[in-house]
Amino acid sequence: MYGESASLKCSVKGEVNPHILWISPTNRAITSASDKYLIHNDGTLFIHNVQRFDGGNYTCLARNSAGQDKKVYRLEILVSPPAINGLRGSTNSLKNVVLPAPYYGAGMTVHRNGTLDIQSLKVTDAAFLTCIAQNEGGEAKLIIQLDVLDTIEKPRLRSPKMESLSLTVGRTLTLNCSVEGSPAPQVTWVLPGGTRAGRYTVLQNGTLSIQQASVYDRGSYTCRTANEYGSSLLTISVIIIAYPPRITSSPAATTYARRGVAVQLNCVVLLLCVRKSQHYFDRTIMSITAYIPSVYEVLLNLSIKA
């Protein structure tokens, strides 16, 4: 394997101890005088930090007074391409701006380990960056998209502050929660207990819409907005009017009067008021809600003068 140590074993037998000689692929005798090679007493050849050019045929030559013998070993160097640790992104065509490692420039540094440092980021620094690692075994690439935000801002509500909202049964309930921030905040609505699912919709601008509101939709609605830099809350109390006021008696659409004579216009309105009472029976509290009709008469006196 590329960069590791390789060993070639040469076992020799003879009546007289033979002398072992190793021949390199370049037909040169190998000695232990260099840091590259080491020949053990048993004839094994060690090659340190093998490179691609170390590959080839190595010959073990054994000699004694009776003769000689040889054996050829084929050494092939396996080279694996480099690997880059990081997040991979989609490929994209780039301009050929190359910064070797190490590189020390104004506001930009490439360390020996491949780390890129950019000081005082600007919006114009946004780009696709490619890290390329090469060796004799091949090449590896890592493409990273660098996005630079113009401003960083925690969520801020743009909707006018509304503490409560009243509407009648059957109408569409619309609650605004417009928000701004960078990055774009996430909007979440927390609904009161009893609100039925399937009738409400959250629009892209954060507005909550509930079709055909009923008395079960009353309660406190909370809009929560958050991004990685902060959060904001908006709570609105919703009151559902089950029985709106009703005019039971009103003057005619057209009323004639004489000049200088007082005119009386009557308007009778029927209101349903909710009254809650508590009664005690054997130390048990029972709550009773009663809808009591109330009649209000509005008198409007007009005097038309000449």
Automatic annotation (TrEMBL):
Keyword list, A-Z: Disulfide bond, Immunoglobulin domain, Repeat, Signal
Superkingdom in the source lineage: Eukaryota
SMART domains named in the record: IG (SM00409), IGc2 (SM00408)
Xref: Pfam families: I-set, Ig_3
Any single GO CC term annotated in Swiss-Prot or TrEMBL for this entry: neuron projection
Gene3D superfamilies tied to this protein: Immunoglobulins (2.60.40.10)
Protein name: Ig-like domain-containing protein
Gene that this polypeptide is encoded by: mxra5a
